[in-house]
Design a protein that fits this description.
alpha+beta, Thiol Ester Dehydrase, Chain A, 6-stranded antiparallel β-sheet
């Protein structure tokens, strides 16, 4: 089901006073994974932007399951599908030590071409076949 995964390790400064990863940090993990996935599939945000094409997040749903703590190693996995004009990234973070799910997310993205909503883009459509 998952088509890509990226390994991470929690850094001390990502944790809050409770000693767990701050809720907002998970969005960084998710975004970094999406960007690395795109780069591995020869899709560059920078080059697309220079062509007037911008893929932007329209909505994020996140369900926190098990907290990560400083030093925890984890993997962020994803797969992407198309729903209408949206490219939907389904992402799950697993703690490596026990394979527990830490977070499940659904990230809806859309494409703007020269600032206008577009139904698709060839480079992004190619991801549907990965």
């Amino acid at each position: 089901m998952f088509t890509y995964e990226l390994d991470f390790k929690v850094r001390d400064y990502e944790c809050d006073l409770q000693g767990i990863v701050n809720n907002s940090v998970y969005q960084n993990y998710l975004e970094h994974t999406r960007h690395e996935y795109l780069l591995e599939n020869n899709v560059s945000f920078d080059l697309l932007h220079q062509q007037g094409v911008d893929a932007v997040v329209a909505r994020i749903e996140m369900a926190y399951k098990t907290p990560l703590k400083s030093g925890d190693e984890f993997v962020c996995k994803l797969y992407v599908n198309k729903e209408g004009i949206k490219y939907v990234f389904h992402q799950t973070i697993f703690r490596k030590s026990d394979n527990k799910i830490c977070l499940k997310a659904k990230v809806d993205t859309v494409v703007l071409i020269d600032g206008k909503l577009a139904a698709s883009h060839p480079q992004l459509e190619a991801l549907m076949n990965v």
